[in-house]
Amino acid sequence: MGEFDLIDRIRARATTRDDVVLGIGDDAAILEPPPGKQLVVTADTLNAGVHFPEATRAEDIGWKTLAVNLSDLAAMGAQPAWCTLSLSLPGSDPKWLDGFLDGFLELASRHGIAIVGGDTTRGPLSLGVTAMGFVEPGRALRRDGARVGDDIWVTGALGDAAAALQSLFAGAALDRTLRARLDRPTPRVEAGRRLVGLANACIDVSDGLLADLGHICARSNVGAEIGLDALPASPALQRFSPAMRQAWQAAGGDDYELCFTARQELRDEIAAAMGGVAVTRIGSIVTGQGVRALDADGNEWRPPRTGYTHFE
Amino acid sequence: MGEFDLIDRIRARATTRDDVVLGIGDDAAILEPPPGKQLVVTADTLNAGVHFPEATRAEDIGWKTLAVNLSDLAAMGAQPAWCTLSLSLPGSDPKWLDGFLDGFLELASRHGIAIVGGDTTRGPLSLGVTAMGFVEPGRALRRDGARVGDDIWVTGALGDAAAALQSLFAGAALDRTLRARLDRPTPRVEAGRRLVGLANACIDVSDGLLADLGHICARSNVGAEIGLDALPASPALQRFSPAMRQAWQAAGGDDYELCFTARQELRDEIAAAMGGVAVTRIGSIVTGQGVRALDADGNEWRPPRTGYTHFE
Questions:
Q1: ipTM for the assembly
Q2: In chain B, what residues touch A70 (CB-CB under 8 Å)?
Q3: Residue A219 — left, alpha, or beta (φ > 0 → left; ψ -120 to 50 → alpha)?
Q4: Is the pTM of this model over 0.90?
Q5: Which residues of B are known binding-site members for Mg(2+)?
Q6: Which GO terms describe its molecular function (chains A, B) (predicted)?
Q7: Where are the beta strands (DSSP E) in A107-235?
Q8: How far is B84 from chain A (nearest CA, A)?
Q9: Which one of A230, B213, B251, B288 has the largest count of C-beta atoms within 10 Å of its C-beta?
Q10: Do residues B220 and B292 make contact, with C-beta atoms less than 8 angstroms apart?
């Protein structure tokens, strides 16, 4: 298969939307933004061996490539609409591409997001997406809105992806549900939509809770205190020792849960509004700067590292 | 420098626009599309050793990364507005990044396009852009509008980039103007804007004239005949033998000129409308399918290859 066969293969399988005037197959796509909305745009690239283990199945790479981008839209409270997909592939492998599209398009159809363009080049395996969505004007969830006294919340459970990754590296037997959390993270799109008008600040947990909550603090010019014991753990994670588990929960990356802050008066409203997604209060926004994680005795806990960062 | 230092370095230098509500630094950007316009979106990635020689200067890589994306917006007749930039870098090299940004931002400022987001990852050198622009509803230049009897036109001159690339590979001395055409292509943004309402179909010449004009023919369900002798050549290209020159002009890629079709009655209007950009009539749209290139004797000429395609 040549480049254009690959593109045709993607086009043949990609679903479209009424607001896509012209999709894949021209120099660019033509789209109709809805009147009266703001456009939310994010871009994330996954590289083999950096963002996923080389041995990851094509289906799972496809899912995760879109999931990490949808997670960024979710953290803004945006409704997904369109994306571009840039594939850099070491060779032409229709079977791999079909598997990749299986995973990518399965998640895309759940959120009604259409691939409208992109490109296909030869090179080391790398998958780039730019995702676009909409939000009501002035209502996006940002990092800079946290206020002293706010509760700090997270959706779902933390630490599963880090546990899976570390088990893989160690060659240990790996629980299937943990592996699924690493390979097929759930972007909290619906939860993010429901937080519009409720949350003061929001971010997705991709680099690790302490690091990501630290971004909220830095942009909002506040500090945060969280309780290690309050961090939500999945049943699978509870089988690990507290020390390992808490390090993964507080500092592990790749969970793609939402961490958000909200006024204390909204506790009941938030618990009721989330539509089946679990939410847990884990701490408070305080004056000062930086994030302090406290153990059961009230002592400050410091992680072995505070989140994944490239180039260090 | 870590990942966040790299991002801060980009943010510190990136210019913004009034319609950027929130730019680099959150989970996603928030943008205000202008009312009553359609959004035009394109994505192109450049990989080291595939899309540019490994030895290319950082400044030139920066320029070209944006130029190839602006060229796609130009081919739609769109006005550039915003872009995301995904950098995959083998290491953290502030000097390289500054050079890259010098070239990228020099071209960005000429066209008023703002970087609104993106990401920075570790990996083999690869530069991905998704560019966004606007066009009046229903007025975008597409590939599918060519009509039998249309003139076929190109902007500027063809073959320079291919001549430069082949000379580089051959280790031959290289004319400075040819090298500049390879490293610093001029996206024909203003020409594309002026063609709105005049051209029936348009594409940018990135894979080679015959291949790209072939895309117009396929999408418009027509054929094309062009005269080899009519293809515009720069003074630098005219120093090569006709056989080499014509192969580069007809089948070489990377020129980023616009190839467009228009009704014959519009010849004078088009010549007058282009604002200093040279345009040359090179042939006609005919019934049938495919592109026929005719030499001075009226014989069909076939290129050694019909344009660059990955995976073949």
A1: 0.94
A2: none
A3: alpha
A4: yes
A5: 27, 42, 44, 72, 119, 204, 207
A6: ATP binding; magnesium ion binding; thiamine-phosphate kinase activity
A7: 114-122, 126-135, 151-155, 201-204, 223-227
A8: 7
A9: B213
A10: no
